[in-house]
Write a structure and sequence with these properties.
Helix content is about 30%, strand content about 20%. The chain is α/β, with parallel strands linked by helices. The longest helix has 17 residues. The chain binds 3-isopropylmalic acid and iron/sulfur cluster (SF4).
Amino acid sequence: MSANDSHPMTISEKIFSRASGKEVKAGDFVLANIDLAMTHDITGPLAVDGFYEIMKGREEKKVWDPSKIVILFDHQVPADSLHAAKNHIMLREFAKEQNILNYDVYEGVCHQVVPEKGHVKPGDLVVGSDSHTCAYGSLGAFSTGVGSTDMAAVLASGKLWFRVPQTIRFEVEGKLPERVYSKDLILHLIGDVGVEGARYMAAEYAGSTVRSLSISERMTMSNMAIEMGGKAGIIEPDVVTEKYLQERIPGYKLDPYWASDGGADYLDVRHYDVSNLEPQLACPHNVDNVKPVSEVEGTKVDQVFVGSCTNGRFEDLEIVANMMGDEPVAEGVRLLIIPASRTEYMKALRAGYIEQFMEAGAIVESACCGPCMGGSFGLLGDGEVGLATSNRNFRGREGSAESFVYLGSPATAAAAALTGEITDPRKI
Ligand SMILES: CC(C)[C@H](C(=O)O)[C@@H](O)C(=O)O
Ligand code: SF4
């Protein structure tokens, strides 16, 4: 990159410049080198089939770099059907044969496990065959979801083409009120711009409110960038990121280069003040059908699901535990708690929260996607209403096409579990 033609860049432009070896700007088409590729039990088998298709006729059928690939089992674990068991066997064999790291059925949801184990750092270009791969933008990476065939190409070559996305920047100021969290904030942003508001763009979340968030809270926001159509949801790394990474990557030091330059070219900069933000809910059947809790209070719920890669971490479980105290789950309500990873589960276990949940009448399952995608256990039946801390509420997402899913924060989930209806968590 020559100093002469260098222009102020967004963090995405910087990452694609590094990954493609030439200075690029939004709109350019690039062939970029991938730093990490993630695949899982649902989309992995197709990617592996595609990989062998590409390798047909070659003597050596080896992936481009096994140390840059991670395979996880999380959507259908422990195997909930013979089909799932078959997929797991196939991927285990592939991982073994190719010497790829494979987190098996006990480890947790991909988007929690990958950053938790130190596989992502600022400036990285990451792809995963899952739409919520955008979650790792919380650590200053450009991270995005791809289909299984793209993943097959990455497994074979380590490269993928992209159009460098334009950036929409969300500048958020003000202190989040009590019992209002980053989940409420991201739902508010999605409600504001709509499900296509950031289509094929990099969303950047910035401002003092975002900087004050923990990594867990930031992950919630980056995770849901895809819910506004975003290609990525990036938060500039800072000392909070550095501390998180130092606990995972020995000797990691923050590099201030991985931030957008002053004067970078944004497609749009939007300003928000959250000082008076109410708890928010995405109402059936779209993630951008967002309403403040005051408009939907009193809606009866049959099931409350606390979990998923969006809000299934220790901090989320802690909010629920603190709000519930020693109160029982409301009569007629099923409270389903599924930590996002084994590590987060054990933190909650050691803190006494799991025992507290069980005493209250909750159902606690081992780390996995659970009913988030409606493919596994914990499904909603016809006419039932669920409140979930996850990220999607499309018709049938959590079970029956005749059920209704509201999305909210862990605090709003706890309030509903205690009262049996959608309730402002500030009233508990
Ligand atoms: C199974 C997978 C392809 C899917 C995704 O890409 O997001 C799932 O994780 C989801 O949340 O809907
Ligand atoms: S927890 Fe839900 S959103 Fe996250 S990867 Fe699993 S199914 Fe997808």
